[in-house]
Recover the amino acids of this structure.
């Protein structure tokens, strides 16, 4: 069926059912049970009734089937909640700029926030620059690692699995390699003393952090968000540097997260 046909059906459904609440309630009662269930949206727990909060239930099911909504929406919300007027946001592994584009809307409220976006994949970096061309964001098309030089990367079926070959996974194609310029965070000259650092680099997180040790030692890092990382040694390092660890989506305290980790420095949690 073409788009026109779908629109006709949607219009008929709207006129005949949605605008007749008693009919809609009756038809819904025939197919949807009247029972409460527990769901999670945007990393928050909700108790909903399958019949009376059907919209939330549908959103929950759609979220589960879509990796962006399932894995990114709650984390984005949590990062937005901790960004403050004088912060610096560093997006390492920016891809096409979802995090930087969404969070940089805060520039309307907090024009002094500094934004940096790094993307090592040359092809993806082209789209990143287009995504952020109207934003006041520093964009870099090279990799971040533990030392300056050249780093071998390997691709895969989608841009999101592009990563350093030393950390290669079964999502990548060993023969599809490319040499990329690599620098360290400490070598960039980052502005700001309250840094929120987001890292999504397919297993290369430890090297990125090693390249920014001076920022950590100077207590310039406010928060670290690690996407898709369950590195216990890295979590222990962050704790040793004065960070408290949370699940990046639910904000529940953790020792190491299954999927995403949000580490907040104790001085921003009322500590010394």
């Amino acid at each position: 069926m073409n788009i026109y046909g779908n629109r006709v059906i949607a219009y008929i459904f709207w006129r005949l059912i949605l605008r007749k609440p008693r009919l809609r309630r009756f038809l819904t009662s025939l197919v949807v049970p009247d029972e409460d269930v527990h769901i999670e949206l945007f990393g928050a727990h909700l108790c909903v009734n399958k019949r009376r909060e059907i919209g939330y239930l549908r959103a929950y099911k759609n979220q589960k089937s879509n990796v962006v909504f399932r894995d990114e929406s709650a984390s984005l919300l949590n990062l937005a909640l901790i960004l403050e007027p004088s912060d610096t946001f560093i997006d390492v592994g920016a891809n096409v700029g979802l995090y930087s584009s969404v969070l940089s809307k805060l520039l309307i409220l907090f024009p002094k926030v500094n934004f940096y976006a790094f993307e090592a994949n040359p092809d993806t970096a082209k789209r990143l620059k287009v995504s952020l061309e109207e934003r006041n964001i520093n964009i870099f098309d090279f990799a971040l690692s533990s030392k300056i030089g050249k780093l071998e990367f390997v691709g895969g079926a989608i841009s999101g699995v592009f990563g350093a070959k030393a950390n290669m996974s079964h999502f990548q194609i060993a023969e599809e390699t490319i040499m990329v310029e690599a620098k360290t965070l400490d070598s960039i000259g980052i502005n700001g003393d309250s840094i929120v650092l987001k890292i999504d680099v397919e297993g290369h997180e430890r090297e990125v952090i090693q390249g920014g040790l001076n920022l950590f030692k100077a207590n310039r890092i406010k928060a670290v968000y690690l996407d898709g990382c369950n590195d216990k040694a890295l979590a222990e390092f962050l704790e040793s540097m004065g960070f408290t660890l949370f699940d990046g989506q639910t904000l529940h305290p953790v020792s190491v997260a299954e999927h995403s980790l949000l580490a907040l420095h104790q001085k921003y949690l009322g500590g010394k």
Remarks:
- The first strand starts at residue 36 and ends at 41.
